[in-house]
């Protein structure tokens, strides 16, 4: 389970856009980038952030520490900006905090990762169908000379269909990944070798640990998914099904 902390001060919004993440201080004396439950993309974006982020961490990739951040009413009450105040008010309760990396800077290609590390990142994005790591939005930070992975809300797109359609792991298993615009495409070493390195480390026990890290209240019921345990099982089933078909979804295929 992710650690639960309480926000004590809202500092500033980080960028324009629909999600409008903000920088906050918490009662553990840490500073976090806060992804709000009340943002337009909804709770499933927070779920994807946790699932992909914790899977990446388990595979040895660098991801900022994640925490569940309790946002309480007084913070919203004293925020002057009306748009931010509305977002804070709509997000009271549990939100997702991502450890702020002071002094980090966005990836621009000037400090590329090692080829095998780049391949591992590209493999993870292909496995989780993360389409949002391109030159227009690299979602990589360089911190202490290493690449750190951020912003995985666009991954696992299949769960956005759940309110109206039953889960279909086999459909996800057959969806190829287009790496033509991936920011690390020209840096990565052989993806088949990356698959051999990483796929062997993913089993039902690891996936259970990863999906159990998502707070139950973020797991919304859907067709055929009556409660949080059923939703967790559906995510595991999708991951396991995709793991069996790299020859379909992995760019260049895999034996």
Describe the protein.
Helix 1 crosses helix 7, helix 4 packs across helix 6 and helix 7 packs across helix 8. Helix content is 34%, strand content 17%. It is of the alpha+beta class and 255 residues long. The two termini are 35 Å apart. It is built from nine helices and eight strands. The strands form two sheets. The chain has a five-stranded mixed barrel. A three-stranded antiparallel sheet has the order 6-7-8, with no helix packed on it. The protein has two domains: 97 residues; 127 residues.
Radius of gyration: 18 Å
User: Secondary-structure element sequence?
Assistant: EEEHEHHEEHEEHHHHH
Helical proportion? 25-40%
Compute the number of strand runs.
8
Main structural class? alpha+beta
Average of pLDDT: 94
Major sheet: size, sense and barrel closure? 5 strands, mixed, barrel
Q: Give the percentage of residues in beta strands.
A: 15-25%
**How many DSSP H or I helices?**
9
Throw out a few tags for this protein.
255 residues, alpha+beta, five-stranded mixed beta barrel, three-stranded antiparallel sheet
Structural topology:
Layout: E1 3-13, E2 22-26, E3 31-35, H1 43-58, E4 66-71, H2 73-77, H3 82-90, E5 93-99, E6 105-106, H4 115-127, E7 140-143, E8 146-149, H5 169-173, H6 191-199, H7 204-212, H8 228-243, H9 246-249
Parallel strand pairs: 1-4
Antiparallel strand pairs: 1-2, 2-3, 3-5, 4-5, 6-7, 7-8
In short:
The chain is an alpha+beta fold and 255 residues long. Helix content is 34%, strand content 17%.
């Amino acid at each position: 389970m992710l650690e639960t902390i309480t926000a004590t001060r809202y500092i500033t919004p980080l960028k324009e856009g629909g999600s409008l993440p903000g920088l906050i201080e918490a009662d553990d004396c840490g500073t976090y980038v806060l992804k709000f439950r009340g943002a337009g993309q909804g709770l499933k974006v927070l779920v994807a952030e946790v699932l992909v982020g914790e899977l990446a961490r388990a595979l040895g990739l660098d991801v900022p520490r994640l925490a569940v951040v309790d946002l309480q009413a007084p913070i919203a009450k004293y925020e002057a900006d009306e748009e931010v105040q509305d977002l804070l008010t709509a997000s009271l309760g549990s939100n997702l905090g991502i450890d702020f990396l002071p002094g980090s800077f966005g990836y621009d290609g000037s400090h590329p990762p090692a080829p095998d590390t780049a391949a591992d990142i590209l493999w993870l994005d292909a496995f989780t169908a993360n389409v949002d790591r391109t030159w227009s939005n690299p979602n990589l930070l360089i911190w202490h000379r290493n690449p750190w992975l951020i912003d995985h809300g666009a991954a696992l797109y299949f769960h956005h269909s759940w309110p109206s359609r039953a889960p279909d792991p086999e459909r996800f298993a057959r969806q190829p990944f287009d790496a033509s615009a991936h920011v690390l495409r020209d840096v990565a070493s052989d993806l088949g070798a990356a698959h051999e390195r990483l796929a062997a480390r993913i089993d039902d026990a690891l996936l259970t640990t990863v999906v159990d890290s998502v707070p139950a209240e973020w797991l919304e019921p859907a067709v055929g998914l009556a409660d949080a345990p059923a939703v967790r099982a559906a995510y595991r089933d999708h991951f396991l099904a995709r793991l069996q078909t790299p020859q379909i979804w992995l760019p260049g295929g895999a034996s």
